[in-house]
Amino acid sequence: MPKQQRRTFTSEFKKQMVQLYENGKSRAAIVEEYGLTASALDRWIKQAQTSGSFKEKDNRSSDENERAALRKENQRLKMEVDILKQAALIMGRK
């Protein structure tokens, strides 16, 4: 079975799907009619109810935001250490 290509949807489309659901259309009908996955529709509904935004960064918990910031800082520090190692090697040759 061929793998499905990942589709992207605009915020407007997601908002329209959530509105259909909120206006009484069943999840199953929306999923069937628009070729969506139930998990995607459920995620959009949850995002609309919690933050009103479909951007992942707006829907992260404070712990998730902190972990992302720590990962970013860790990556930056590793790069700095690599630069310092290279500089030490160069200075050691002189």
UniProtKB/TrEMBL annotation:
It comes from the Bacteria. GO terms for molecular function: DNA binding; transposase activity. InterPro entries: Homeodomain-like_sf, RD_transcriptional_regulator, Transposase_8. Gene3D superfamilies: Homeodomain-like (1.10.10.60). Residues 49-72 are annotated as: Disordered. GO terms for biological process: DNA transposition. Transmembrane segments: none annotated. It holds the Pfam family HTH_Tnp_1. Residues 54-72 have a biased composition (Basic and acidic residues). This is Transposase. It comes from Paenibacillus rhizosphaerae.
